[in-house]
Amino acid sequence: MDVTISDVAAYADVSIRTVSRVLNRSTKVNAQTRERVEAAIQALGFRPSARARGLATGQSFLIGMVHNDLNALVLDAVQRGMVREATRRGYEIVIHPTHTPPEGAVNDVLEFINRSRVDGLVVLSPVSTVEGLPQALAEAEVPAVAMSPTELKGYTGVVVSGERAAAAAVARHLLELGHTRIALISGPSAAFSARERRAGFVSALLERGCGLTGEAEGDYSFNSGAAAADRLLSLDPRPTAIFAANDVMAAGVLKAAAARNIAIPQDLSVVGFDGSILAEMLTPSLTTVHRPMGDMAQLATAWLINMVERQEAPEQPIFHQNLTLVPGASSALAPCASDILIPSRTGPPGNDQGTQDTGTVSKGRRQDKLTP
């Protein structure tokens, strides 16, 4: 037979009300009694009824996760992080994909809340950046923690990933390897994350007196990364390094390079962003920015549940998560200029037309390698 709350009370030699208070994390139970009840729960294998808890507390014990992210690798990490915390605290996760245009997203999220009766929301970027959403959630008295590449106002809490600083670290990494012909495959310009990554990368290059050799916009998908790389690799002279604004597009760069028999990293260095499992699965392994989405999602969920149960806003509503550049086998010292010349389409074999400028670049690059 199933273990009941009465069985737990008898085992711990306390009242049913005391067990209920322990289950509902009431502050009216002293530490010694709480430990005795929790030991009884563990010994008997008692699992409280979510329906009964909901009737007693007025909660649904459901946490919503709202997103508009097509990257399955990112979503998997976020969901795993949320589940780790939610399961431990006796909550379930309800996932709701939505669109990001402001005129549709706000009403759609509010309708989701009414249908599901969630106790609170974790809102992923780019939905978290939709204008008017935090205000609408505040008016509906629904606590919400946003995950965002930038600080946002109006949410109960915000977990901010330092994407601008991380992209700047990518630029410095490539410059330190001696690259001066560097290209960028950015994400969609409408996305805050894409704008943050581009701004950090370009500003760090300019600080060292280096501009972009070429730039193409993708949509964070594999095919857009491959198409963008194909355009950039058609430049003459072509770039010796490409920063793709996520790992999936970086994988597309590797495909485009392989189709042109361009060796990675001997002829072309490639860097991605996200630090997903894909980075280790690729050959060569991808140099990338590790974005600990699972850890950040777990933090956001813990933060949210604390607010739901205590009904109070955090003292510090903004948490900043630093991101780390993880070197892989896809980036290396810049090749000599003579190794990356694209043969002239008009001159005969052996035509050295256009080599003077490249020779100058080669000399400068070798100086860069030796400069501390």
Question: Could you explain how this protein is built, in words?
Answer:
By secondary structure, the chain is of the alpha/beta class. The protein is 46% helix and 14% strand. A 6-stranded parallel beta sheet has the order 2-1-3-4-5-11, sandwiched between helices. Helix 5 (72-89) packs parallel to helix 13. The longest helix is centred in the first third of the chain and has 18 residues, at 72-89. Mean pLDDT is 86; it is low at 337-372.
Could you provide a short overview of the structure?
This protein has 372 residues and is an alpha/beta fold. Helix content is 46%, strand content 14%. The strands form three sheets. A six-stranded parallel sheet has the order 2-1-3-4-5-11, sandwiched between helices. It has a four-stranded parallel sheet with strand order 7-6-8-9, with helices on both faces.
Oligomer: single chain
Uncertain segments: 337-372
- What fraction, in percent, of the residue positions are helical? 40-55%
Please compute the radius of gyration using only Cα atoms: 26 Å
> How far apart lie the N and C ends?
72 Å
Number of helices: 14
Q: Which structural category fits the helices and strands?
A: alpha/beta
Indicate the mean pLDDT.
Answer: 86
The SSE string, one letter per element, is HHHHEHEHEHEEHEHEHEHEHEHEEH
- Strand numbers in spatial order across the main sheet: 2-1-3-4-5-11
Overall 3D form: elongated
User: Got a strand count?
Assistant: 12
Largest sheet report: 6 strands, parallel
Instruction: Report the β-strand fraction as a percent range.
Output: 5-15%
